[in-house]
Amino acid sequence: MVETKPTDAPERPDQPMIAAKGLVKRFGSFTAVDGIDVEVRAGEAFGFLGPNGAGKSSTMRMIGCVSPPTAGSLRIFGMDPVRQGPQIRARLGVCPQQDSLDLELTVLENLTVYARYFGIPRKVARERARELLDFMQLGDRAGDTTDPLSGGMKRRLTIARALINEPEIVLLDEPTTGLDPQARHLVWDRLFRLKQRGVTLVLTTHYMDEAEQLCDRLVVMDGGRIVAEDSPRALIAEHSTREVLELRFGLDPLEPIAEKLDGIGERVEVLPDRILLYTPDGDEAGAAVTGRKLHPSSVLVRRSTLEDVFLHLTGRTLVD
């Protein structure tokens, strides 16, 4: 049974914006979300990472009040999304993974028409819409129809539309998927500015550099459960090493070479084209490799990233 205790008491200043306890979502016999605990505080950027089928989207839909929990407790602004969905949705901004713009309306009309769903007066809606278009660097395209816009422009317009009701929480599902590097960085900049204004951001992403750039805290999900939670920096420190040594040996079989690296660094991982050696000091490890009379065709020392943590926790096998 989903917990449905009364939640009409005033919000506390220290109350989490989102609080989930033992949250479960089932579809028939399939459990998509399997008893997770999550707290999101006001003004932070919080991320959900995980492979396909990890339960990220199911969790986001429950937070967005469009999919009721099967079991456990979920509170947004201290309210119950099952009983108080409309009140919660009025304070949320939602940027879905797929743009759902009206291609026959102008850029400005996409915002002003959407504003009517929130009961925003027409004059106020136009003022907000123009401010948001300037904020997302779309002000000069206000009178254009939406269909000819580039993918990056459509994505920025979708984010602008999610902000028309001045939401306290913005849910962003894969906000920069399919964008070129310049468009991604522009979106990152605008999301960072939103956070500076005190807006709470909750996002899913497949880009580990995006999670490192935007998220104050994040959870890594796998199989419907949370397998790690902390800041990106803390997760790297806990689950990886300071540096990674990447070794390539041309066409030589890598497994026999990897056996000769035993004892160098903390962990060795063999990929189809290279060997990864996880170590606190890449240069020192490189010297040790050479000292064992191994001669890689290329050597790269880099810092550990969130991607290293993600793949270590969830595996490298593709999940459809």
Automatic annotation (TrEMBL):
Recorded superkingdom: Bacteria
UniProt keyword terms in alphabetical order: Antibiotic resistance, ATP-binding, Cell membrane, Membrane, Nucleotide-binding, Translocase, Transport
GO cellular component, one term: plasma membrane
GO terms, molecular function: ATP binding; ATP hydrolysis activity
Sequence ranges assigned to domain ABC transporter in this UniProt record: 18-248
Subcellular location: Cell membrane
Topological relation to the membrane, as annotated: Peripheral membrane protein
GO BP annotation list: response to antibiotic
Gene3D superfamilies, per the entry: P-loop containing nucleotide triphosphate hydrolases
SMART domains: AAA (SM00382)
PROSITE patterns: ABC_TRANSPORTER_1, ABC_TRANSPORTER_2
Signal sequence bounds: none
InterPro entries in UniProt: AAA+_ATPase (IPR003593), ABC_transporter-like_ATP-bd (IPR003439), ABC_transporter-like_CS (IPR017871), ABC_transporter_ATP-binding (IPR050763), P-loop_NTPase (IPR027417)
Family, similarity comment: Belongs to the ABC transporter superfamily.
Protein name: ABC transporter
